[in-house]
């Protein structure tokens, strides 16, 4: 097996696999990527058995073949090697990499040991703008549970609703203390994925990498797998086999105190409160009175912060407490000048949402004062 390839292209292709290959595993083959050289291209495949990535890159192939090599070691070698072109040569499972006057040698693994990753060419895929998926992920991923034992909420719920020939994509995430929901504008094409699916946290990270890079992607669901195809890349993510909580029951029906706030003013005030927050205590008390809002955060270990801002409020004085990071997360992803803050009374949840439409909302449970 022998080929030469542009160093930057090769390095980028390897780097895309590093989030997938297993760092700690009893199966060394899962630390590797499979490199297949054929005609005028190479194919790089990575998998941890739950997530798989297949990508193609142009190369000058003089001898076809395939070999599995340690992903991280290969990445380090190609990153440090000089020159614009890398020569890759393999014989009898020994890999040699060279450029200019630098030479590396490493042992490889037989391609037969590498897990089989099928391309799923017959799976129905639907074209969408990558920025649509990117926006949905950015507006929900922060709220998913980090507790891996909570399997059904350790990821995001993704579903599609059909309205005639239009489709609306929806993502939901919750950690039990907050819930974030984002919807796309109606898309012209009819996208069908069946019932809603749960994309796991690790898989979602890889999906975001793809939609960050490509303007147009194809998505679909087949055999309990979420598929993203873009240009020369195919990503397959195994879905969580569990039932997602009925998030619609969590959305408050009763209106609390409805406030329209300047996004930047409120966000920066919250960030100043977070300076004295800690892992043990990250609360902020919001005190509303006529024409003003006072924010206060007191931490016995760090200190105290207080700020007053003007608000359009003419009701009775109200105090409420929240995790300051939750409020910052919820408001940071809104891209309009103003936000609506529906403050629940007592210990009822509050809602942060868009001013102009219902494409985004984040429900946040209060803290006991």
Largest sheet: 8 strands, antiparallel
Strand order of the largest sheet: 6-2-3-4-17-16-15-10
Helix content: 10-25%
**Ends apart, CA distance between termini:** 68 Å
CATH superfamily of the largest domain: DNA Polymerase III, subunit A, domain 2
What fraction of residues sit in β-strands?
35-45%
The number of distinct β-strands equals: 25
Mean pLDDT comes to: 93
What is the overall silhouette? elongated
Number of DSSP helices?
6
The fold-level CATH name of the largest domain is: DNA Polymerase III, Chain A, domain 2
Low-pLDDT residue spans: none
What structural category characterises the helix and strand content?
A: alpha+beta
Rg (C-alpha, Å): 25 Å
Q: Which CATH class of the largest domain?
A: Alpha Beta
Number of domains: 3
Instruction: Please state the second-level CATH architecture of the largest domain.
Output: Roll
Give the oligomeric state of the chains in this entry, treating copies of one chain as homo and distinct chains as hetero.
Answer: single chain
Folded structure, characterized:
By secondary structure, the protein is an alpha+beta fold. It folds into three domains: 2-113, DNA Polymerase III, Chain A, domain 2; 126-248, DNA Polymerase III, subunit A, domain 2 (DNA Polymerase III, Chain A, domain 2, Roll), CATH 3.10.150; 253-364, DNA Polymerase III, subunit A, domain 2 (DNA Polymerase III, Chain A, domain 2, Roll). 17% of the residues lie in helices and 43% in strands. Strand 19 (283-289) and strand 20 (292-299) form a beta hairpin. The protein is elongated.
């Amino acid at each position: 097996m022998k080929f030469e390839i542009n160093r930057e292209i090769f390095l980028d292709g390897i780097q895309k696999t590093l989030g997938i290959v297993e760092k700690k595993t009893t199966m060394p083959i899962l630390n590797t990527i499979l490199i297949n050289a054929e005609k005028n291209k190479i194919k790089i495949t990575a998998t941890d058995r739950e997530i798989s990535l297949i990508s193609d890159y142009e190369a000058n192939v003089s001898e076809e073949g395939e070999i599995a090599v340690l992903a991280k070691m290969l990445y380090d070698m190609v990153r440090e090697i000089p020159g614009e072109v890398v020569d890759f040569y393999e014989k009898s499972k020994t890999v040699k990499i060279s450029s200019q006057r630098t030479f590396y040698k490493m042992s490889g693994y037989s391609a037969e040991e590498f897990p089989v990753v099928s391309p799923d060419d017959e799976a129905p895929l639907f074209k969408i703008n990558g920025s649509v998926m990117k926006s949905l992920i950015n507006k929900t991923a922060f709220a998913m549970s980090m507790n891996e034992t909570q399997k059904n909420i350790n990821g995001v719920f993704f579903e599609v609703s059909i309205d005639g020939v239009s489709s609306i994509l929806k993502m939901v995430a919750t950690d039990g203390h907050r819930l974030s929901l984002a919807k796309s504008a109606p898309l012209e094409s009819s996208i069908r994925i069946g019932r809603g699916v749960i994309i796991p946290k690790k898989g979602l990270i890889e999906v975001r990498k793809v939609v960050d890079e490509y303007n147009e992607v194809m998505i679909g669901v087949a055999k309990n797998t979420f598929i993203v195809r873009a240009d020369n890349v195919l990503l397959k993510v195994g879905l969580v086999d569990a039932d997602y909580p009925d998030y619609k029951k969590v959305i408050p029906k009763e209106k609390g105190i409805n406030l329209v706030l300047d996004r930047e003013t409120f966000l920066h005030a919250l960030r100043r409160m977070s300076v004295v927050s800690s892992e043990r205590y990250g609360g902020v008390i919001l005190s509303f009175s006529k024409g003003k809002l006072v924010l206060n955060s007191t931490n016995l270990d760090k200190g105290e912060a207080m700020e007053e801002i003007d608000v359009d409020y003419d009701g009775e004085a109200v105090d409420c407490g929240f995790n300051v990071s939750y409020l910052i997360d919820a408001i940071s992803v809104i891209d309009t000048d103003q936000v609506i803050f529906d403050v629940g009374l007592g210990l009822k949840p509050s809602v942060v949402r868009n001013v102009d439409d219902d494409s985004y909302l984040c429900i946040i449970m209060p803290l006991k004062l």
